[in-house]
Write a structure and sequence with these properties.
Radius of gyration: 29 Å
Oligomer: single chain
Distance between the termini: 86 Å
Strand order of the largest sheet: 1-2
Order of helices and strands: HHEHHEHEHEEEHHHHHEEH
Helix content: 40-55%
Number of helices: 12
Low-confidence stretches: none
Structural class: mainly alpha
Length: 325
């Protein structure tokens, strides 16, 4: 009989024997010894599934997951049984673990050192879009029952472990936003805004109106000038949010859209809209806290750049020039 089969049978029989024994301490010790001697190299991470009512199903799935990462030709199935048995006995926490060898994986399991995954929340998404992004993530768990208010989570890259509750991660985003906005608000001498809510609403408009961070300052100055001169904000993103509530997108605002009566129709209602229209990023928040000054009151986007104008006539002439080209 070849050494391969001898080794295979020995480890398999030893695993089965210890599986039916009640001496867990001895079993754990022997399992660790076998794992240490094998020092099998692995190809990737292993996922330990959550325990459910069917213990055997969970155990079998764990064996299967360990077997998938074995790169050696000697006793992959037997070593997978031992690894799964050890994980089961120590009640290993569900999650993803990696290591160059089986023994390194076991050390990470003992230390609860799981693989961290990441998800990036882009600036300017509505809270509905953020929740959709989390719900589509296959490594997050559970439904979102408590949806935060619009403009209350911080767009950022977040790290998490597999099977983290989506609601828990969303709460983390809300806490991050609260911490950042409190710090900015308390560490500034600005007198532009009477309260934090108006500041965040304004920042959300700047986030949606600007094509990039470089032009946020000038765009913020335009809307500040409109507010100070008691003008309508005439913000298309506000109108769109009033129609879609952040659940869909309208590529172009038409005449029929600006006739709609809404708390967000800044073509018919002066001042800021009722709530934020998205979740603004850090740069928009900082710019909006103390907007730079300019004489511009109008702007329009072009493919290459954004054109700013000081008067309505200049603005109209600029639009005509585009139409004639």
């Amino acid at each position: 009989m070849s050494l391969y089969y001898v080794n295979e049978c020995f480890l398999l029989c030893a695993s089965i024997f210890f599986l039916y024994r009640t001496y867990k301490l001895a079993l754990t010790t022997v399992s660790l010894l076998i794992i240490h001697l094998l020092q099998t190299h692995t190809s990737e991470y292993v996922y330990l599934p959550k325990r459910n009512k069917s213990k055997m199903h969970t155990f079998y799935q764990t064996i299967h997951n360990f077997q998938k990462i074995q790169t050696n030709k000697c006793s992959p199935f037997a070593s997978s049984i031992v690894l799964a048995l050890f994980s089961y006995l120590i009640k290993a926490q569900s999650g993803e673990y990696d290591g160059k060898t089986n023994f390194e994986i076991i050390k990470n399991i003992l230390n609860k050192k799981m693989i961290l995954r990441k998800i990036t929340i882009p600036e300017g998404l509505s809270i509905h879009q953020v929740c959709e992004l989390l719900n589509q993530c296959e490594f997050l768990d559970g439904a979102i029952d408590n949806v935060p208010h619009e403009g209350s989570i911080l767009p950022e890259t977040y790290f998490y472990t597999r099977n983290t509750k989506a609601q828990v991660l969303l709460t983390k985003m809300s806490e991050a936003f609260t911490n950042v906005t409190n710090q900015l608000w308390n560490n500034t001498d600005q007198r532009r805004w009477k309260n934090k809510n108006d500041w965040i609403i304004f920042a959300s408009i700047i986030q949606k109106e600007a094509k990039d961070e470089e032009e946020m300052g000038l765009i913020a100055s335009v809307f500040i000038n409109r507010i100070e001169h008691n003008m309508y904000l005439d913000s298309d993103p506000c109108v769109i949010y009033g129609i879609t509530n952040g659940k869909s997108h309208i590529n172009r605002v038409l005449k029929q859209h600006i006739q709609i009566n809404s708390d967000y129709n800044t073509y018919k209602k002066k001042g800021l809209p009722k709530t934020p229209i998205c979740n603004p990023g850090l740069h928009a928040l900082i710019i909006s806290l103390n907007p730079p000054k300019s004489e511009y009151k109008f702007f329009h986007h072009r493919q290459i750049n954004t054109v700013f104008s000081k008067s309505l006539n200049d603005h109209i002439n600029s639009l005509k020039n585009i139409q004639n080209t």
